[in-house]
Amino acid sequence: MNFLKTAFAATALVAMAPLAPAVAAAQPAGVTAGMEVVDTNGGMVGTVIAADDQLVTVRTDRHEVPVPANSFTPHEGKLLFGMTAAELNAAVDANMAAAEASVAVGKAVKDVNGVEFATIDEMGADYIQLALEGDKVIRIPVDGLQKDANGAIALYNAADLMAGAVDRPEEVQAEAEADPHAGHDMGAEGTN
């Protein structure tokens, strides 16, 4: 799960990382696991643990971060990267904190197409209730909502969720909290 969190955090890093000169459009030639990644001043950023034509995954002292392959420039057997290890770690930490904060009551929710369509209304141990327009609600499994630094994402299409939504139920719970003895036959308690 940590890899998924950092994978989403890496998306935001693309815009943040100033690139070294002569950036290629695909995987830098000769990138292999174990290569050192250094900043433009020669400071150690991390080590390559995986690479393909889209992403190079760098292990820093704290994170495994998938970074777009075109963010690196090969130089003297190492990969140059436009951020220091501290900057990369801080960017990942900030994105992970923003992603964590995206799933809370009152936060907006987007669907898989990026359309904002609901807010988080209630959170249970195994469900998240979304409030939709027209005072409608729908419950989805906890794992049906993805944390993201740019806002929570329901792993569904908004139209499908809206089609399954129901009217907000009456507030029976509020009545029960107001009178904890409601619905109980107090005369029968304690008798055998």
Question: What's the short story on this structure?
Answer:
The chain folds into two domains: 2-100, Roll (SH3 type barrels); 108-182, SH3 type barrels (Roll). The chain is built from four helices and 13 strands.
Structure in words:
This protein has 192 residues and is of the alpha+beta class. The chain has 2 domains: 2-100, SH3 type barrels; 108-182, SH3 type barrels (Roll). It is 24% helix and 31% strand. It has 4 helices and 13 strands. A 7-stranded mixed sheet has the order 11-12-7-8-9-10-13, covered by helices on one side. α1 packs across α2 (85-101). The longest helix is centred in the middle third of the chain and has 17 residues, at 85-101. The termini are far apart. Residues 1-26, 172-176 and 182-192 have low confidence and may be disordered.
CATH architecture of the largest domain: Roll
Counted by DSSP, the helix tally is 4
Beta-strand level of the residues, as a percent range? Answer: 25-35%
Q: How far apart lie the N and C ends?
A: 53 Å
CATH T-level fold name of the largest domain: SH3 type barrels
Gross geometry:
elongated
**Average of pLDDT:** 82
The H-level CATH homologous superfamily of the largest domain, spelled out, is PRC-barrel domain
Content-based structural category: alpha+beta
Radius of gyration equals: 24 Å
Query: How many discrete domains?
Result: 2
Helices and strands, in order, run as HEEEEEEHEEEEEEHEH
Biggest sheet strand line-up:
11-12-7-8-9-10-13
Query: Which CATH first-tier class of the largest domain would you pick?
Result: Mainly Beta
- Please summarize the sheet with the most strands: 7 strands, mixed
Oligomer: single chain
The low-confidence parts are: 1-26, 172-176, 182-192
- Share of helical residues: 10-25%
How many β strands by DSSP? 13
